[in-house]
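How it folds:
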Amino acid sequence: MRIEYIILITLMGIVTYITRASFLVFLKNTDLPKVVYRSLKYIPVAILAALIFPGIFTPQGKLDISITNPYIVAGLVTVISVVISKNSVLSIVLGILSLVGLRQFL
């Protein structure tokens, strides 16, 4: 491995650590407003959406919101399954099976 890559990875790790640790160091004795605490609860959902939605709505690198996009239909099957059953493993299996089946037909 080239030395430039090692330096780059090390510097990226340092920057990541500093940005995360700065909140712990600078805000440890500070009381944040309630609106901040309420907003922090939505961060995991926002991150999950940011990771999943591009794969569903842009499977070939361009926006595809048609009914022939099997990822949208499989995503809907997964969401409906998790809302009804509250079972994540079952929902993941149903989502994968529906995607495999839809890719054969669409």
